[in-house]
């Protein structure tokens, strides 16, 4: 069913081309291609401005975990806007939703985390973690601990320092990144390393130990990781990997920072990926599913020890100069509280558990497709990795432009997902998906892959 096209679509496309800079886009290529204006959403479905209906298997940008059109969230935002649209956290002011949200986050995250700083999104949460870890070591008499370690293919936002913990070329090229204090260890990319689960975990632990030894533990501040690497290509480490890395970090006397911006809020099954392995991080970053994209917000949580080190090590009465006008925004906090209620009392977490096997079946069902080298998933987060040769796991030449072609073919077939590099398709459906919607996803995805496979230049490359 098609809706009528937007009456001013051509004008919008021209204005976009002339004025709006898009995040993480090839700017000139975007101008040539033109914007796709998204118009409305309901549940797992989007409608664009030309009336095309799309099944969104990426929850916006892995964030709209409750799905589109949740009226109770809209009401929570409207009520808070009417009552008090803004309250600063400066000068010892605050608002009820922000205070209740902080308490709720402490209640549902691992027990090690007791203090919450509310931001505008994930990048700012990572940035806060880096700045406050720096303050922590300075205030506790270990000022040499300034080096940070993260994973190759990791993504930790695009702030001016966090982009150096991100280990993807586009975030470094031309930005003079990474900083000399930022270092990487190999990603637990079992499909490519060929290691079995135990060997993969042992390899990652050994790599962290070796990197800390090389830098000197007295110089290393923290290890940052995603429990499942998202933007690096949905790399799912073996079960037990996160726990092993947390134990190693503790033994090495470095802070263990878990970036659950994507994996939080039911994305991988439990409320947080840490829960599945009983991991107790020193710091945790959150965003995306926190508000399900209905309002911008992220969070950075820390342990009591880190909090006390910062608070008690600062000169008495001196301000700790980290904050922003919109920190702990009351409307975003009210939205987050209602979104969290939907996960728990609204049954969305339970629905996510119920439908996850159908998601897994769609991806695993395509394993035998000639283009598919690997399918991997946990909960409602997954990927298909395409190869031109299954035995050698060889990818495709970038000149084929497969990434754009697959995305475009999916779009024509009424499917929104994400393509990484030239050969990885990422999926993160909302927790409200139904069994029938996964059946539609399966049909449309297979049709998309079949169309790509039928192209003569793709066949020639295989
Ligand atoms: N960390 C991770 C793991 C992410 O996936 C992202 C966003 N994709 C961020 C941090 C940054 O969050 P934001 O885009 O909200 O700044």
UniProtKB/TrEMBL annotation:
Q: Which domain of life is it from?
A: Bacteria
Which CDD domains is this protein grouped with? OAT_like (cd00610)
Identify the cofactor(s).
pyridoxal 5'-phosphate
The alphabetized UniProt keywords are: Aminotransferase, Pyridoxal phosphate, Transferase
Which species?
A: Roseateles toxinivorans
Q: Which GO terms describe its molecular function?
A: pyridoxal phosphate binding; transaminase activity
Asked if the keyword tRNA processing belongs to this entry, the reply reads no
Gene3D superfamilies noted in UniProt: Aspartate Aminotransferase, domain 1, Type I PLP-dependent aspartate aminotransferase-like (Major domain)
The reply to whether Cytoplasm figures as a keyword in the UniProt entry is: no
* Protein name as it appears in the record: Adenosylmethionine-8-amino-7-oxononanoate aminotransferase
Please give the GO cellular component terms listed in this UniProt entry.
cytosol
- Give the matching Pfam families: Aminotran_3
- Into which family does the record put it? Belongs to the class-III pyridoxal-phosphate-dependent aminotransferase family.
TM region positions:
none
């Amino acid at each position: 069913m098609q809706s009528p096209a937007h009456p001013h679509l051509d004008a919008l496309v021209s204005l976009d081309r002339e004025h709006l800079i898009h995040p993480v886009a090839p700017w000139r290529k975007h101008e040539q291609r033109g914007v796709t204006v998204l118009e409305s959403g309901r549940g797992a479905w989007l409608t664009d401005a030309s009336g095309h209906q799309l099944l969104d298997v990426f929850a916006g940008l892995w964030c709209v975990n409750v799905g589109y059109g949740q009226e109770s969230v809209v009401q929570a935002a409207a009520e808070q806007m009417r009552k008090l649209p803004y309250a600063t956290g400066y000068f010892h002011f605050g608002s009820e939703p922000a205070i209740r949200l902080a308490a709720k986050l402490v209640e549902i995250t691992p027990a090690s985390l007791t203090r919450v700083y509310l931001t505008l999104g994930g990048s700012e949460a990572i940035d806060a973690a880096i700045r406050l870890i720096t303050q922590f070591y300075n205030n506790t008499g270990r000022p040499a601990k300034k080096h940070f370690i993260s994973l190759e293919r990791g993504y930790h936002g695009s702030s001016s320092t966090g982009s150096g913990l991100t280990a993807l070329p586009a975030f470094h090229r031309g930005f003079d990144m990474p900083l000399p204090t930022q270092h990487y260890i190999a990603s637990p990319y079992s499909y490519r390393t060929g290691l079995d689960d135990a060997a993969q975990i042992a390899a990652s632990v050994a790599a962290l130990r070796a990197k800390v030894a090389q830098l000197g533990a007295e110089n290393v501040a923290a290890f940052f990781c995603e429990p499942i690497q998202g933007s690096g290509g949905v790399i799912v480490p073996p079960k037990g990997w996160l726990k092993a890395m947390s134990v190693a970090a503790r033994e090495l006397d470095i802070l263990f920072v878990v970036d659950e911006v994507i994996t939080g809020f039911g994305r991988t099954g439990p409320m947080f990926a840490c829960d599945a392995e009983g991991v107790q991080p020193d710091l945790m970053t959150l965003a995306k599913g926190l508000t399900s994209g209905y309002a911008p917000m992220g969070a950075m949580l820390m342990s009591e020890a880190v909090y006390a080190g910062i608070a008690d090590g600062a000169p008495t009465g001196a301000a700790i100069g980290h904050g922003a006008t919109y920190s702990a925004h009351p409307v975003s906090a009210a939205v987050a509280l209602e979104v969290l209620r939907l996960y728990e009392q609204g049954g969305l977490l339970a629905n996510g558990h119920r439908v996850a096997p159908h998601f897994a079946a769609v991806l695993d069902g395509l394993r035998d497709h000639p283009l598919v080298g690997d399918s991997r998933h946990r909960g409602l987060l997954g990927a298909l990795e395409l190869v031109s040769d299954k035995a050698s796991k060889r990818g495709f030449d970038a000149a084929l432009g497969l990434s754009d072609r697959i995305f475009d073919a999916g779009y024509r077939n009424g499917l929104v997902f994400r393509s990484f590099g030239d050969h990885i398709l990422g999926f993160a459906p909302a927790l409200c998906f139904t069994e029938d919607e996964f059946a539609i996803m399966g049909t449309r995805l297979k049709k998309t892959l079949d169309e790509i496979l039928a192209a003569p230049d793709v066949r020639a490359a295989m």
